[in-house]
Specification:
about 45% strand, globular, mainly beta, 7-stranded antiparallel β-sheet
Length: about 160
């Protein structure tokens, strides 16, 4: 059983009102992903994936991503809704950070809109939505972005595996 839902205030959303299976939603919010002050991605054409108990995951179109510091990484994972994800690593002189971003090159039909879009882990990079710094989703598995516009509790914290 999950902890009690936090009641959203005006202008906020509760992740417990998001559906299961998840839905996709285009957004005009201005999203920026950076590493040490250098932008990797910047877009006002992202797509949010909204799933019960998880903060929104933002997917950025490949045309709004700079691949100068990104290389295809190892490993794959499987989402029961979206399909198989592959990963990108960040590589700069003297540093390699594995799996900073993920993509679905062959998503399931309901998620075709995010084909080749990239999601980025706020746990590993600096991310912002409309100039607000994103707080990383706790844990290392979920890639949701926590802002003041969403309330939880959020899946990913210790003990939330079976929510």
């Amino acid at each position: 059983m999950h902890p009690e839902r936090i009641e959203p205030q005006p202008g906020q959303e509760s992740v417990w009102d998001y559906p299961r299976p998840p839905r996709i939603e285009p957004t005009s919010e201005h999203v920026v992903v950076s590493f040490r002050g250098t932008a990797l991605a910047e877009s006002s054409r992202a797509i949010r994936v909204l799933e019960t108990s998880q903060p929104p995951a933002y997917y950025i179109p490949p045309g709004d991503v700079s691949f100068d510091m990104l290389v295809e990484g190892d490993g794959h994972s499987f989402c029961e809704w979206k399909g198989e994800a592959s990963y990108f690593d960040l590589v700069v002189p003297g540093t390699r950070i594995e799996q900073v971003a993920w993509t679905y090159t062959h998503p399931s039909v309901p998620f075709a809109a995010i084909k080749d879009y990239l999601g980025f882990y706020a746990q590993k990079l600096e991310c912002a939505v409309d100039r607000e710094a994103v707080v990383p989703n706790e844990g290392s598995f979920y890639g949701g972005w926590v802002t003041s516009k969403v309330v939880g509790p959020f899946k990913g914290v210790p003990g939330s595996k079976w929510w």
